């Protein structure tokens, strides 16, 4: 039986999962593929370190893996921008097929790498870069290739979803829920990238690029984290039929695209509301397909490795079919925006239309509601629901708006802060999925 | 720009959706693909009939479409076994790529057609045959190609899911919910194929074949419908934290496979419990990936057409990459079980282990529970929950078992019917997803 050699860049959590799957499922894969996948050289930082998995050939020089003429497929699971980006680029330029799980590389250098893949006649697959073990990249690129995507809503970060689930179920404040997530290994010692939304923003940039044939980088993504969400917000949300989720949102409007990551109130009956704990999900709305959702484990050694090895099999099939030798790669639709597609403008968040939940600490006096309502009215922000809570020192006014321009909502908030009757704007959280 | 011609067999609900998408999304598809998809000849039963869509070239002889040398890709949306099966076979034998939305053809003749595709060097794609617009075939064949699937749970029939949702939400009995579904166009005048589970069984056979590299036909699928489900069952289920769903279940156990379609109690917190109305969903458990779910519209003109056109784009890419000319098709993993894979035995339902909900009409007298419990015990069926309801003429005993051999449960039921204390076995419904 023919063999194909897989070279591995990195052997941490995901890499060791890849090694395990190539071994343990090797016979099944060989039967499905008609060829055997063999693990070739593995580049690691410290070749002397003890590992749970046996590695046939270890090097501390990743360039040796990329340059090895026996390596048919390069798998990059180093994480971070460099040296991962340069190594992937080198491999593609040499016409080597690459599978990567690296969201940072794909979000920041996707179009550049896609161009190198096209030029080199190579394939670049990256299913594991978004939502770990959940197939979402390939379904969006392939199954929806004849459709027109209008909106993508994603729960793309398991750490924050776990924290919000604990806050919702057990009434924990954010710091306690974060501490529990850290204790259980769901959150890192430095949780910034997760809780501030940066991890989700990189994945949102990748999804938006695919969904809308746009060039979206993390810098284009308006990003807010969950650190300011309080048990009070969650309790209010629940009473009104919502749960709080950190959402990645990409939508198309008049040929332009907006991409943002922020906490949002999601109606109880929305499929995303039931995505709990460390699970991920991507909810896609297509013109023809309607509403679709992809759900599963967004992280972890084996789930992520499953997506990586799925990509390796895809690439191996292409190799066996002689795709490397062809003059015109079939990968145009596979890679990030094809050069023939118009570049779409990424629109600033201020000009996007959103619903908002606003919680105000107010003076408990007659005329408060009138002055607050008038302020919303002045900025043409229309109110859907009002709820008054408490009295005296604890009087609160809770409002949900209809969809309104984000910029107008911000101007409203600035004016509300200046009112004598408003002691503070306690919370502002957007509402998503309520008008679907 | 290069063009590829799509020949269409059938122009009913799905076919006219395909024509619309090829037209309305034609420019987007061309930009993504680097080639233009052109609608060629369309075979219809009555060429004189008025249609909402304009067709360039109509014939009442489908063989003309298959034999047309200008047709690059044949799309089969006729439905039913013949002449669809023969036409697909002819096309594949002639080396023509085929996209079909036909569950009956794929469930009954999948392996035969896959062999013809391999022999002809052609591709056979059938994403729309299961769960309409939801990408599930390709994710299972490709993204999970490096994993090992253990179990598949699917809500694969929108009609019955709509009926069960109405029965659950509004307390309607089955005939009233069916009548409403018929009035709204969710159920056909003759609803047999849907309500008796035959439609779901064909789709279950296809999914099981892919998931377990097995040869499963609809005849291998133990099939029960929903006509006997009562509002009482649904109310009891709800009280115990379950909803009633018609599930397609395929699982692997010791190298063998069981496939079945029947109503089942699903715990409220299971992702499938929230799949409402006419939506479909497939919940897959893989060794490495863990739990995955794919959710969306399982039927309808445009959702199904979206999946068909997605397949057409996939096939077009392969064509443009010169895949037709290659000596060794890459389609082994794409098609139904590869010839190199061991054939797995499909095990009869009687030998499968399941949890059951059993509702008994009992005599309201001392010792009833003891005699019932003893009967379960004699067959080694262990009881998880018991609930006594009503008194006198309406006394009922409601039991949920632990997982037990289906054959043992049936033997228990036969013995229960013979007890003086048991007036009738009112309902038996299996329980799924509770021990995950």
Key structural traits:
homodimer; 436 residues; 14 helices; 3 domains; six-stranded parallel β-sheet; Rossmann fold; Alpha-Beta Plaits; alpha/beta; eleven-stranded mixed β-sheet; Dihydrodipicolinate Reductase, domain 2
Low-confidence stretches of chain A: 324-337
Annotated CATH homologous superfamily of the largest domain in chain A: NAD(P)-binding Rossmann-like Domain
CATH class of the largest domain in chain A: Alpha Beta
Q: Greatest chain-chain interface?
A: A-B, 68 and 69 residues
Label the structural class of chain A.
alpha/beta
Tell me how many strands of chain A there are.
17
Largest sheet properties of chain A = 11 strands, mixed
Oligomer: homodimer
* Computed Rg of chain A: 24 Å
Q: What's the overall average pLDDT of chain A, rounded? A: 92
Question: What is the count of DSSP helices of chain A, taking H or I runs of 4+ residues?
Answer: 14
Question: How many domains make up the coordinates of chain A?
Answer: 3
How far apart the termini of chain A lie comes to 52 Å
Tell me the helix content of chain A. Answer: 25-40%
CATH topology of the largest domain in chain A: Rossmann fold
Topology:
The structure is a homodimer of 436-residue chains.
Chain A: E1 3-9, H1 13-24, H2 26-33, E2 36-43, E3 57-59, H3 62-67, E4 73-76, H4 84-93, E5 97-100, H5 103-120, E6 124-125, H6 137-143, E7 149-155, H7 158-170, H8 174-183, H9 192-195, H10 198-212, E8 222-223, H11 231-239, E9 242-253, E10 256-267, E11 279-286, E12 290-297, H12 301-320, E13 353-362, H13 368-378, E14 383-389, E15 396-401, E16 404-405, H14 406-418, E17 422-431
Parallel strand pairs in A: 1-2, 1-4, 2-3, 4-5, 5-6, 8-10, 10-17
Antiparallel strand pairs in A: 7-9, 7-11, 9-10, 11-12, 13-15, 13-16, 13-17, 14-15
Helix pairs in contact in A: 1-12, 4-5, 5-10, 7-8, 13-14
